[in-house]
Write a structure and sequence with these properties.
The protein is an alpha/beta fold. The chain is built from 15 helices and 6 strands. Pfam families: Sulfotransfer_1.
Length: 308
C-alpha cells in the first residue's frame, strides 16, 4: 500500500508513470483533454457557492498573473499568506483531471470552504450553469491572438500532457482552426465579450494590464467590492510584476516536476510581453493570419492591441 502524497509535487511524482500527452476529445464541439472529457458530467454538474469567484481565460492569456493579483487583493497585499501554497492549490483549476493520486480540480474544491476563487479555461458555453444561476462574479482576461498563440505554442512544447505542438507553421494552422485544447481562441474571447454586460463579467485585456497595471488592479478591486489602501495597491503591482512572479516558486510552476512541465524546453513564465509575436511570425505568416483574423472577428469590434 503506497503512502498518501504529502504535497501536490509528491502526487505528480507518484503518478509519473501515467503522465503522457493525452489526446483531445470533443465536448459539445470543443476539443478538451481526454481526461476532462471522460469526467465531463461531473464537471458540468459543479454547483458553486454564490460567493465563489471564477477567473476565466483562454490558455496562456495572463491567468496566473490575474490569480496572483486577486489572491493578494483578498489578503490585503500579504505576500507571505499568498505563499501558503502553490497557485494550483490556492485557486483550483475547475475542469482539470489527472492520473491519481494527483487531485482533480473538483477534489481540491470539495475540501475548500467558500468563498473560493476558481480558475477555468472553459469557453462560456461550457461553464457549469450553476455559476450563472448563482450570479457568481466572473473575471475574464483576453490577450491578443498573435501573442496568445506564441505563448500557447511554447507552453505546449514544455507541457507533457497536451498533444505534440508540431512545427510552428503547423501550430499556426491549428490555432486558426481551433484544433487546440479548449478550442478556438476566436470563439472564446468573443463568447465572453458578447455576454459581459448581461452576466456581469469583468472583461480585462492583458495589454491594458501591461500598460497600466495599477489601473487594472484598481478595476479588479472595485469589481470585487474590496477596498485596500494606496500603499497596498502599489505593493500588489510590485509583487505581481513579471520579474517578481517569475522568481516566486509559489506562482512560477517550477514545483511541477519535469515529467509534466519541462522548464528546460521553455519556462512556464517565459516572457510576459506584448508584441513578442513579431519574433516568431514571418511576414507571409503574419499576412495570412491577419486576413483570416479579419474574417473570424468580423462579427465583433474588440479593442485588441498587438503592440504597446
Amino acid at each position: 500500500m503506497e503512502e498518501d502524497p504529502k504535497s501536490y509535487e509528491d502526487a505528480i511524482n507518484m503518478a509519473a508513470n501515467h503522465i503522457r500527452r493525452f489526446p483531445l476529445v470533443e465536448v459539445q464541439g470543443v476539443p478538451l483533454m481526454s481526461m476532462i472529457a471522460e469526467k465531463w458530467s461531473l464537471i458540468s454538474a459543479f454547483n458553486p457557492d454564490p460567493s465563489d469567484l471564477l477567473i476565466s481565460t483562454y490558455p496562456k492569456a495572463g491567468t496566473t498573473w490575474t490569480q496572483e493579483i486577486i489572491d493578494l487583493l483578498l489578503h490585503n497585499g500579504d505576500a507571505e499568506v499568498c505563499k501558503r501554497a502553490p497557485t494550483v492549490e490556492r485557486i483550483p483549476f475547475l475542469e482539470i483531471q489527472a492520473p491519481p493520486p494527483i487531485p482533480s480540480g473538483l477534489e481540491l474544491l470539495t475540501i475548500m470552504k467558500p468563498p473560493r476563487v476558481i480558475k477555468t479555461h472553459l469557453p462560456i458555453q461550457l461553464v457549469p450553469e450553476g455559476f450563472w444561476k448563482n450570479k457568481c462574479k466572473v473575471i475574464y482576461v483576453a490577450r491578443n491572438a498573435k501573442d496568445n498563440l506564441v505563448s500557447y505554442y511554447h507552453f505546449d512544447r514544455m507541457n507533457k500532457t497536451q498533444p505534440e505542438p508540431g512545427t510552428w507553421d503547423e501550430y499556426i494552422q491549428k490555432f486558426m482552426k481551433g484544433n487546440l485544447g479548449w478550442g478556438s481562441w476566436y470563439d472564446h474571447v468573443k463568447g465572453y465579450w458578447k455576454e459581459r454586460e448581461k452576466r456581469n463579467i469583468l472583461y480585462l485585456f492583458f495589454e491594458d494590464m501591461k500598460e497600466n497595471p495599477r489601473r487594472e488592479v484598481e478595476r479588479i478591486m472595485r469589481y470585487l467590492d474590496l477596498s485596500v489602501s494606496e500603499d497596498v495597491i502599489e505593493k500588489i503591482v510590485q509583487l505581481t510584476s513579471f520579474k517578481v512572479m517569475k522568481d516566486n516558486p509559489m506562482a512560477n510552476y517550477t514545483f511541477i516536476p519535469k515529467v509534466v512541465f519541462d522548464h528546460s524546453v521553455s519556462a512556464f513564465m517565459r516572457k510576459g510581453e506584448v508584441g513578442d509575436w513579431i519574433n516568431h511570425f514571418t511576414p507571409a505568416q503574419s499576412q495570412m493570419f491577419d486576413e483570416d483574423y479579419v474574417r473570424q472577428m468580423a462579427d465583433v469590434d474588440m479593442p485588441f492591441r498587438t503592440s504597446l
